[in-house]
């Protein structure tokens, strides 16, 4: 039978052990949903402007990792990404919101106007780089949405949304890593099955 001193030591160490477990870095799979128009197959993969979506905060560097990640993925798919011009445009949104204990998402902390876009309301408020509070054990949902339009007609050719949850002390939480994770999953197997939601590890 443990001695009184041993029992006291175990009792005192338990909260610290639980705290250590609770603060372990964690990142979940990426959930993606994509829609594509029939006319996407007819559209050449030529010059495409990669821009921040209308209504998003254009100032500062918060969106740059997401723009860069989308640009790399589109180039790998055979597009010619440019800052302006082109026959198509890729509009990028990104945002973060803390996940509550019941699994629901708190409204994103927004530094932009936000809003909805496309056929399934994929708009998210930008909250990149903002301290949401709660310490290193807080779990945050990071999302990115991309809409590809015909530059002249403004017809939506393709759109997708990707999101994943991670603790704020995980490597994937860092903005550039988060952007790479989201863009890689979003454009994997492009254009994907229209209307299908899948998880990518």
TrEMBL record:
The keyword Signal applies. Pfam families: DUF4136. Keywords: Signal. Coiled coil: none annotated. Residues 1-19 form the signal peptide. InterPro entries: DUF4136. It comes from the Bacteria. Residues 61-192 form the DUF4136 domain. This is DUF4136 domain-containing protein. It comes from Alteriqipengyuania halimionae.
């Amino acid at each position: 039978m443990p001695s009184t001193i041993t029992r006291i030591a175990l009792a005192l160490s338990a909260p610290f052990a639980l705290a250590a477990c609770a603060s372990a870095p964690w990142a979940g799979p990426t959930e993606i949903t994509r829609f594509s128009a029939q006319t996407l197959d007819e559209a050449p993969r030529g010059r495409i402007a990669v821009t921040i979506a209308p209504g998003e905060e254009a100032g500062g560097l918060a969106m740059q990792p997401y723009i860069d990640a989308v640009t790399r993925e589109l180039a790998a798919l055979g597009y010619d990404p440019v800052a302006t011009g082109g026959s198509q445009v890729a509009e990028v949104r990104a945002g973060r919101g803390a996940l509550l204990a019941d699994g629901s998402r708190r409204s994103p902390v927004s530094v932009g106007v936000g809003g909805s876009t496309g056929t399934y309301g994929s708009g998210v408020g930008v909250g990149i780089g903002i301290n949401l509070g709660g310490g290193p054990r807080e779990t945050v949902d990071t999302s990115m949405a991309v809409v590809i339009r015909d530059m002249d007609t403004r017809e939506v050719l393709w759109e997708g949304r990707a999101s994943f949850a991670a603790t704020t002390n995980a490597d994937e939480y860092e903005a550039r890593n988060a952007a790479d994770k989201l863009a890689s999953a979003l454009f994997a197997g492009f254009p994907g099955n229209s209307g299908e939601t899948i998880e990518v590890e």
